[in-house]
Amino acid sequence: MPYTAPQTAFFSSRRANKLCARLILASALTLVSTTTMSYADTADALAVPRPFEVGASLSGNYLAAIVAGAERDTLAASTFFREALREDPKNNDLIDRAFVSTLANGAIEEAVPLAGRVLSHDRTNGLARLTIGVDHLKNHRYPAARAEFNKGGGDRRRDITSILLTAWSYAGAKDTRHALEALDTLKDDAFIVFRDYHGALIADLGGDAAEAERRFKSAYNAERNTLRVVDAYGRFLASHGRREEALKIFKDFDDVVPNHPIIAATISDIQSGKSLTPFVKNAEDGAGEALYGLGALGGRQGDELASLVYLRLSLYLAPENALTIVTLGDVYERMKQSEAAIDLYNSVPRDNALRVNADVQSALLLETLGKSKEATEHLSAVVAANPKNEEALTALGNIQRSRKLFDEAVATYTRVLDLQTRADKGQWLLYYYRGIANERRKQWPQAEADLKKALELNPDQPLVLNYLGYSWVDQGANLDDAFKMLRRAVELRQRDGYVVDSLGWAYYRLGRYDDAVRELEKAIDLKPSDPVINDHLGDAYWRVGRKLEAQFQWNHARDLKPEPEDLAKILGKIQNGLDEKPELAGEKPGNKGG
Fold first, then answer.
1. What is the pTM of this model?
2. Whole-angstrom Cα distance, residue 6 to residue 101?
3. pLDDT tens digits, residue range 375-400?
4. CB 13 within 8 A of CB 148
5. Helix boundaries (H) for 272-405
6. Which of 530, 536, 532 is nearest to 513 (CA)?
7. Residues ≥6 apart with Cβ < 8 Å to 98
8. How far apart are CA 299 and CA 104, in angstroms?
9. Which of 232, 293, 416, 467 is 20 to 30 A away from residue 130, measured at CA?
10. Which domains does the chain possess?
11. Helix (H/G/I), strand (E/B), else coil: 299
């Protein structure tokens, strides 16, 4: 079968202030076996403990904080830096570091006084000004908030953070005219959607429906497939009695991004006659939305620390914004801080449309942490409570497949496909997964049909080309088409060692050992620490007479912790080499040699 397989805590506010703006679509969380624990019961059992103890010395806590910052553990970094600061309260470097790490960890009430201490020695620190300004805005001290935003430094014409928050401070004071005038200083093309989107929200909050609609239309025409624009504009229309127009906007989005949980829930509410909650209820919500947009963009651009700061400040202003919570959780996932991500996902309000997706992602993270029992219990409860939720079922199928429960995985993927009433290109992945499970349970006709269907939906998908092409070679069937598929897969994924390995191993199975060596050496260069590829190259070396090199590759494969069944074969080859007459693809069963 084919083989499938930092910065520290000191953050630059200047870098944050230069984040350019464009509204983005926040991806729905995607991508679980039989227990009776209820969905509600599992929610309180998800917290993963992260025990650590502060040190007894300044140097010990400082070094621990540096290590935690390098590992992007914001909880430990903020704890150790603040403990070190207790011992050396006048150390400006410690004040700066304690402030940033505390802010990134979301302890805003503790970060605000630290920001004041930063400004006592660095009056132009933009991040400290931003933090204090956000605190003023939250507490309705709007003139004081504006004063802080305007002291942050940088090019005022391009400082989108300051302009957006200044506009929302005017909106909080019910001064819609000055709020819109502040926004309209954003002239750059990159900022137009942000300008019109927030202008629409501010005009709507201020009671100017005509101006709100004009700006909503401008933003929607530019970004009609962007979740936040669609959601806000649709809710605006529905709130003004234009429910059919709102429904069309949501359905048009659903045609492009099917089954997004927020859109699906909103469509259901409109069709059942329910009132939609306002998108922005006050200036704090609006400013939080501005910071969410900047934070989500920062995360997409790989600036995780900037993203953390913006998203934490956003949650301080709008603590129940579920999309901000799951976006922040995603940032922690990318920083390999799974425990913190789980805590965030578990804080999504239970009645929110994103809660099921958050619970699914928590279960998948528990699985990656090696907590299989907890993952199973939690995800089983999610599926039991939401038997028609495609994301939860897909996750269940993926975990079943990873645990080699292939019969169960096939049944679960089938349930997902049965729920989908219309053909969609995105279904290729489900057919691919089900095809793998069918092939692993030795049901090749069903596997072949699934893989062909996946290719029909996505004709140039390299993973499917690789899997189906290799399987045909292994069976000695459709060899011309098989090698065309494998070569095409390699063209599409030239840097994927697993795909290149499949082509090399296919050559090996046909007895074309020189070709096999050439491709497998390429695969090793791409994935030097993979036991299967090292094992394959060892076999190919043996067949071309390079037996010392073969022994080296097998020994290397042995040391790379292969699967137990593979380890036994590798040890046998180290001891005895390979048989002289290997079984080639399409021949009767015999010694496979690898």
1. 0.77
2. 14
3. 888 888 999 999 988 889 999 999 89
4. no
5. 283-300, 304-317, 322-334, 338-345, 355-368, 372-385, 390-402
6. 536
7. 78, 81, 82, 84, 85, 114
8. 13
9. 232
10. 461-594 (1.25.40.10)
11. helix
